[in-house]
Specification:
- The chain is of the alpha+beta class.
- It has one domain.
- The protein is built from one helix and three strands.
- The chain has a three-stranded antiparallel β-sheet, with helices on one face.
- A hairpin with a 2-residue loop joins strand 2 and strand 3.
- Bound molecules: zinc ion.
Amino acid sequence: MVCIATRSRPLVLRGTLTTFRRRCGKAACRCATGERHESPALTFTEDGRTKTITLSAAEVRQVEAALARYEAARAELEAQAEAGLARLRSQRRDGADTTGRRR
Ligand SMILES: [Zn+2]
C-alpha cells in the first residue's frame, strides 16, 4: 500500500471523518438483509457537493492528522485576521478624523 503521508509536504485535508455503511450487492451476503458493511470514510464538499472517499484502516490515522493540520492552520489564519482587524481599527483611532464619521 502506498503511504499517502510520505510526500514532501504533510498531508492536509478538509472534511469530516465518518463511517460509511453500504451494501455490497451480493444477494447472499449478510448486508442484503441486515448489517451493512462499514468502512471509515472522509466526507467533504467539493464544487458544492458532498463527496465521500472510503478509507483503509491504515489511512484513518493519517487522515485524522491531516484534518487536524487543516484545523490548526485555519485557526491560525483566523487569529491573524482578527489581529489584522484590531490593528486596522487602532490605526484609525490613532489617526486624525477616522473614528467612523464620514467627511
Ligand atoms: Zn455484503
